[in-house]
Amino acid sequence: MDKATIICRCEEITYEEIEEVIGHGAASFDDIKRLTRCGMGACQSKVCSHLVLQVIHEITGKPLQEILLPRMRMPITPIKIETLATNSTEFSTVKSVLDELELEDGKVK
Ligand code: FES
Known about the structure:
two-stranded antiparallel ribbon; Arc Repressor Mutant, subunit A; binds FE2/S2 (inorganic) cluster; alpha+beta
């Protein structure tokens, strides 16, 4: 991959910037996020998380299954304040993405 390739579109973080922080010891998505703001944009890492995991895998050689997933915070999608204020149960997309994953010892199966 070209070093100038944008990995995180929201924060305009390049492959080279991620490569640099991995060289300084970053080993997980959250490490890279803290050092570069990668994943802190409007999409909250929905677009870039799988690319970052792939870059970590390429550079470190660590199997994808062993790389920790980024931490997600609620809400996962934008929601209306009205929905929160009325405690509506109609909004079914408010849930953790982790609910959909099968984990074993904290890792994705
Ligand atoms: S593409 Fe990285 S936060 Fe949106």
